[in-house]
Design goal:
2 copies of one chain form a homodimer.
Chain A (H helix, E strand, L loop, with lengths): L3 E8 L6 H17 L4 E4 L26 H13 L2 E11 L2 E9 L5 E6 L11 H4 L10 E3 L2 E5 L8 H9 L4 E6 L2 E2 L5 H22 L3 E5 L1 E4 L9 E4 L3 E3 L5 E4 L5 E8 L2 H8 L23
Parallel strand pairs in A: 1-2, 2-3, 7-8, 8-10
Antiparallel strand pairs in A: 1-15, 3-4, 4-5, 6-7, 9-12, 10-13, 11-12, 13-14
Helix pairs in contact in A: 4-5
Chain lengths: 296, 296
């Protein structure tokens, strides 16, 4: 593991045309490689529209096996460009059994590992519990030539437990492919609170664990096929944070490839001045595995 | 529990004179009461200098029993002003057995409960492991007339586990008395990163748990009695955050009494749009009670 690592995030708008989305991702990855990136993170479900705005059984047709057509494309790209790629795919595991799955490719084109989204949201416009079976692989970082990658997906970002378990399993970097946006009808104040909360909670995982965090989020407006809502305005703002939660680079709300260089030795130096892992009260954390503890 | 609650934080500089520190706290609490506060939070160890800059056995003389001389003063004040007060005292529990303890007073002057700091830091200038036995009361909120108070102390603030356990036990508000500051010799960039991380991690507890957070921090420069370091410049910046982590009010670096009004119904409404407690993967969190999980 080299002490410094150039990383890139591909932040893109998607359309209903799979080939277009793939072309945009590929272009972004090639651009990242030209700038020296050795690790590229794509956003959540980058090969399609965010199809969870409605519950529609035909959308399961978007699912694909892993390995499968998409993994073949990204495996080739990883090998040709000699970089590690983290993708996010709609996995068809069996008839009627689907997952929201991140696939990590080693720089020789091999699949280094997969992560199946553990926390599944469900709220108006984000009907993910209909589509995605909760992950059954736990919180296990994926070993690669650029370090152990603690890949988590979108809704996972709100759970300190997930980040902590990745850190305890030796993750060197936390990575979040996401697809989050605004209800266009919300007030500006509410929009600001939501985006700020989203950045804050992910920066907090960097701080609590002394790890860099990469977040790649979708951009663009996608309409609601049911016409019930005003669709989702994905807010982009992909960012790279260092192990004190400091923002090293961030994107705006347009399609972009964000490049940043991490100093991987900072985790050791930050953990020496802030040795949070040393002082965890593991004798008193039992209740974390309970749903709720108050009796009232 | 009323839907809105006016709260106040007393942020003060301390001296070696206990009576002076008490007078400043009392003045702050009276000022808070005049402005309608029903809950006042004092900073960590507000009756003395931050004595942990060196390891000196004579400093144990600062410890006091609970109930004791300080609790008598604050109990009287709570009863007379009809407000709930959260204090932070150096508890002498037995000969040679000391804790860093928060004491919560009901508005009738009764001690509603105590919390003994669970996570104890130890780094140059903050030799707390010498003075404070780790708390043995767990993470239990304290029931009061203004809600269940999840009181945690300073170093606890870096641990998402602590905030989560308070939330799972039904806390309505998270409260952090703290005493954190800069090494005056650090660069401005490092100082900014540290203070920003400190705010970010505490705001993240609000977000992860959908709860308001109150933080009261010390101000002023205190010299190092050993003259080894340049002392500590306590950075103040006490703040009140709402349940999306949004800053409702914050202080600067001078002594002040910060007043803010919380809408306690926002926890329910925020948790309805962001139902993080619903989706916790309690089946997969076992590892949280381990020191470390990676085998390498």
């Amino acid at each position: 593991m080299s002490p410094s690592l150039t990383v890139a995030l591909v932040q893109q708008a998607c359309t209903a045309a799979r080939e277009e989305n793939l072309a945009t991702s590929i272009q972004g990855i090639m651009h990242a490689a030209e700038q020296g990136a050795k690790l590229v993170l794509l956003q959540e479900l980058h090969t399609s529209l965010y199809f969870c705005q409605t519950e529609d059984v035909t959308h399961f047709d978007l699912g694909e096996s892993i390995p499968g057509p998409s993994t073949e494309i990204f495996a080739t790209l990883a090998r040709e460009l000699k970089l590690v790629i983290v993708t996010s795919l709609f996995e068809r595991r069996a008839k009627g059994l689907y997952h929201n799955t991140a696939v990590v490719f080693e720089n020789d084109g091999q699949i280094a590992g997969v992560y199946r989204k553990m926390h599944i949201p469900d709220d108006p416009g984000f009907y993910e519990k209909f589509y995605f079976t909760p992950g059954d692989l736990g919180f296990t970082p994926i070993a690669t030539s650029v370090g152990k990658l603690g890949v988590l997906v979108c809704w996972d970002q709100w759970y300190p437990e997930a980040a902590r378990l990745m850190a305890l399993q030796g993750a060197d970097i936390l990575l979040y492919p996401t697809a989050i946006g605004w209800d266009p009808n919300d007030t500006d104040a509410e929009k600001n609170r939501q985006r700020e909360a989203w950045m804050t909670i992910q920066r907090s995982h960097a701080i609590a664990n002394g790890l860099p965090v990469l977040v790649s989020n979708r951009v663009g407006h996608e309409t609601d096929p049911s016409n019930i809502t005003s669709g989702i305005q994905f807010w982009g703002t992909s960012f790279v944070a260092g192990p004190q939660g400091e923002i090293l680079a961030h994107a705006e709300q347009d399609a972009s490839v964000l490049v940043a260089t991490l100093d991987l030795q900072r985790t050791e130096s930050v953990r020496r001045i802030w040795p949070f892992l040393r002082d965890r009260r593991i004798d008193a954390y039992d209740g974390i595995t309970q749903r709720y503890l108050a009796v009232r």
